[in-house]
Amino acid sequence: MKRISTSLACLLLLSITSAADKPPAKRIQLGDKVPDFSVELLDGAQHKLSQLRKNKKLSGKGVTVLTFWCSFCHSCREIDKPLQQLAKKYHGQCLVLAIDASYGETVKQVRGFCREKKLSLPVALDEFGKSADIFGVTMTTTTVVIDAEGRLRYIGRFRQGNKTPAEDALKSLLAGTDVLVQSTKPRG
Question: β-strands 2-6, 12-16: how paired?
Fold first, then answer.
């Protein structure tokens, strides 16, 4: 299984740790159905992604934006506020969630960091990185957008200069149109 860890350059990469009796998860491709996985919200409660996506108050039409993020990543600081703005802008229309798949981070640490930085965006922890394995994510700030049927429709950068490919994919899905840019090169 993979997990997010720090590197000397402060980039976050996934390292592989294998279970003796279990092969690594297969990375899904664009258009594939996203398998369910569990995350821990900052209130300490465990939830399956499917539960969060079905909560109409949170997810509206069931479209989902997941950004791999953590409290100690330099590049994550560049998207904290824009990600929070996206979550507020589309509240009730879709689920926008930052996922901390960093090994060793705790709810208490992340909750304290969010309080200190005045971040109110929804954050979940996936300590063992199963969600990162599913999408083949190797760097933080990688964003995935999932359609209402649960299929992967975008993977890549949250922002790219002045361009917002993740939000563009989200807008397309909410409008019922095709996602024009389905992937971009990640930046961690």
Answer: antiparallel
Q: Helix (H) and strand (E) counts for the chain?
A: 6, 9
CATH of domain 2-15+28-175: 3.40.30.10
Tens place of pLDDT per residue across the chain (188 aa): 444 433 322 333 333 233 333 444 579 999 999 999 999 999 989 999 998 888 767 667 789 999 999 999 989 999 999 999 999 999 989 999 999 998 889 999 999 999 999 999 999 999 889 999 999 998 899 999 999 999 999 999 999 888 999 999 999 999 999 999 999 998 75
What is the pTM for the complete model shown? Answer: 0.85
User: Strands 123-125 and 95-100: what pairing?
Assistant: parallel
